[in-house]
Amino acid sequence: MTANPIEKTPVTLLGLGAMGTALARTWLAAGHPLTVWNRTPARASGLVGEGAKPAGSAAEAVAASTLVVVCLLDDTSVGEALADADLTGKDLVNLTTTTPAQARARAEWARERGARYLDGGIMAVPPMIGVPEAGGYVFYSGASELFAQHRETLAVPAGTTYVGEDAGHAALHDVALLSAMYGMFAGVHHAFALIRKEDIDPVAFAPLLVDWITAMAGPSITQTGRQLASGTLAEDVVSNLAMQVAGVPTFLATADEQGVSPELISPYFELMRRRLALGSGEEGLTGVVDLLVRGE
Ligand code: FVH
Prior knowledge:
There is one protein chain. By secondary structure, this protein is α/β, with parallel strands linked by helices. The chain has 12 helices and 8 strands. It has 2 domains: 11-165, Rossmann fold (3-Layer(aba) Sandwich), CATH 3.40.50.720; 196-292, N-(1-d-carboxylethyl)-l-norvaline Dehydrogenase, domain 2 (Orthogonal Bundle). 49% of the residues lie in helices and 12% in strands. Helix 5 links the parallel strand 5 (91-94) and strand 6 (116-123). Ligand FVH is lined by residues 15-20, 38-40, 43, 71-74, 77, 80-81, 96-97, 122, 125-126.
């Protein structure tokens, strides 16, 4: 908590990889007293030159501040790094990428050790940290009063988006958005593969893809969310599933003609066909979502 506007909240940061180092620089630049620890101590030297206080062990670093931020490789490294630390009375903010179940287990683990816990999912790459106009932000979940208390300090490196009391929800939002990104990359890479052997400049092709994906993404994603919430999957459908499945042979034949493996897009086409076979030809594509959910 910032008790005095002049005195900034002291922060302890465990983990000085690419992301941890970027986070550290923003807190130092904003005037927060910063204690740092990294398994490989040499990685701290630059930050020490910028005003960070190095700790000899993770336990020593944890002892230095109430607010302890962790940004390590994975959940296992968090457990290893904090194994000997006294977490009593600490506010632990874990920005390490984990699964939702790992985040919930880590929250319980922290509670058993006397700490309050917030989990975070970073929606940014290191160059976006400390650059508000880059649009990076961090999902947070866990105790709302803890988030409110530290919001100002946590907002120094990047924007903050609180997604609820369930400690697993920051990780879930993080992984869901990244999964969508990889699906988008899969389609984009298939498109580039289709033109790869032709006399088409990929540099000139790229903005066509950008504009098309941008135009499609907003309306389609918004409608999918609305349809899932209302359960009315055939409402306001512009391009129905029957028409889209009828086009699938054209997509597969084009890939074949261009000597391109359809392995990135075939699974999606298969799901569209399965949904159509259930008699959903008047729907759009939203019904695919529930085919993916096990037990549906
Ligand atoms: N960098 C990125 O683009 C992404 C953006 C979105 C969020 N991720 C997640 O952030 C976590 C940290 O990522 P990072 O980029 O800092 O990763 P590295 O540069 O590889 O640094 C890893 C740090 O973890 C330390 N470490 C690894 N294992 C252990 C261990 N068993 N005990 C203690 N520390 C450990 C490592 O220490 P060292 O190798 O320097 O000794 C680094 O400090 C991550 O969850 C991303 O998914 C980044």
